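Researcher: For the annotation table, I need structure tokens for Tetratricopeptide repeat protein. Please keep the output clean. Sequence:
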Amino acid sequence: MLHVSGPQERLVAQLARIKELSGLSLRALARQTGLSSSSLSRYLTGRLVPPWEAVVALCRAVGRDPRPLRALWAEAAEAGAAPARRRNDLPADLFDFTGRKAESALVEELLRTTGAAAIDGMAGVGKTSLAVHVAHRLVPAYPDGGLYLDLQGFTPGQEPLEPHAALGRLLGALDVTHPPAGTVERAALWRSELSRLRILVVLDNAVDAEQVRPLLPGAGKSGVLVTSRHRLVSLDAVPPVSLEPLADDDAAHLFGRAAGLSLTEEEPVGQVLRQCGGLPLALRMAGARLRHRPGWTVAVLAERLRATPSRFDAAFGMSLQQLDAVQRRMFRLLGLLPGADFDAAVAGALTDMPPDRAGAALEELVDAHLVQEPSPGRYRMHDLIRQYAADIAAEEEPRAEAALRRVLAHYLAQAVAHERTLPSPHRKDPSPGDPARAMAWFDLEYVNLVACFDAAVRLGVDEVVAELPQAMRVWFFRHRGTDDQARLLEAAAAAAARLGRDRQRASLLADLGFARAAAGRLTEALSAYELAEQSGPDDDTAAALALRIGFVRRDLGDLEAAQAHFRRARELFEKLGRHMGQSQALAFDGWVTLRLGRLDEAVELARASVALADGPAQITGLVTLGLALAPDDPAESLRTLHDALKLSEQHNLQHNQAWCHNHLGVALRITGAPEKALEHHRRAFELLEPLAEVQLEMDFLHAYAETCRVAGRYEEALALLDRAIELARELDRPYDEKLARAAREVVRAAC
């Protein structure tokens, strides 16, 4: 349970007083101070200690001197500090990193003094190598770890990563698995998270300043290193460091290390260096070529390189010559592979080879510096080499599309196999396997799965387009709010329609409606559900649809219609023998019945729900039962709600944990303990923070505000209701706005 410290409570009171003095709404005050309204709401309700810069901005908005608050803010920040987290997903440092002493020193100095640097230079000049090398050297200075993200600015066959998606991945690296929906809100949360940590972030392969700007840290001691082929002159807070090709001495040293030789042939070495243009990538490949041909001299290598006019074709082509036909074919096809990285099984599917033979071929490509192995068993290609391979494949691989189709089929089969081991209301018994391992596989391959989906759309492989999002259903449920989900489901439903699979289309539309409802877009959710009903769903989907339409009707305030849908869902689940679904329908029927004022009936429905389920499936029924018991049996009510919370924690269900804490707050308020209730409301919002669950946020805001009103914390209640009104307007939710405005009038009258 979260216990808000005394200093933090006093700081919240001071901030609430500032808002009152401003005479502005939450949104207007946020606009005037340059803060996001969601962040300001968290500051005013004690869910987050603001950075000092935010306190200064608020004080200036009302003409107050912020300095008297500095000591109180420091106490609150210390009391509310998050435990240290450590993560390091930086690629491995190069064992033969050579030269760049002046540039390394400059980058390190810029990180110490400004917290940022942008390394620019031509392709293959070693920008990423320098950034990673410096990052590894500075690891002790960043105790919370190092993050790496490839922004795909110049990756062949892929669009540059949009800031919205990039922020989602960066927040995910900080265990924020459900980032906010908007880019501005994501950027604010990203800066807020970094302000409490000391992390070095490497943003590799940026296309331009606009891609990078939303990803930069704000206040705090975190640092950022950016690489790009372009000089990012408009990033005022990120000084540039431009790389030139290696000078002859450093180039010769690197070439010698790659070749494994002590070089004495000065003139031939100079010819090799000129042909490679001082580019580390080309030098390593030329050196590897010489190392694999012990009978050659440097002069022979120089002659071979001179035979090819382009230094890239020379270096890459020379490396290809040391490979056999099978290895060369794998290299060509890897240039077409969708996704960021891959393993031997994927390479085997691409080339139609067994994984062990594919693995052996990959090792040869690694030795030739044509493929990188950033972590054991995971491979990737430099953008330049990938483009070179793709260009060759376009000329020499007439069956390239067949190879890609094998990869798509491989990923789909793997996704389906892993998904079947995961528990879900849509199946009676999962397949044997380790669910944790399956979820870890989806986490690892998520970027590649989305890239394969997009490739399937381009190739018109409707089978993969229609089935892959369904194979990711459970993963998406655990990561609700993921950027790609709605886009994938919309395209999948269209593909299912083209295939004439009406039932599959109905199932996909039902999932699309659920994703939209979680984002608080209830009208859009209903539209998807109605299309699903018109598509002829099977019995399982029809039952799920009845339950989900009930959720939307409940959230729109149409309780009678919601109850009718919950009872219809119960009948359908009962006919199917789906006890878990039947239990959920009973629980939500009880929930609506409680809202309609029929207490005894609600208790009976909730008890029936709990009796039908076991494990985490009991949570909904237990929460409903706990709330229904609160007026007449406070002790049993709290015990039941704590049982629900315990189940949520045991199974690491963060949505349910937040839900349970919120309703523990409601029950404690009903039973006359509003101050203790506030602790649970705060904990609920702390858990909700990374989840991007707009509908839950709306529900929690109303409950938290009412508890604040009962506790006499009127300013906090008004701040929460202001946020509810703002959210309702954003989502075009007049019913919720009306409720929040009515509650606001009640609070105003009590002030």
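Researcher: And a one-line annotation?
Model: The mean pLDDT is 85.
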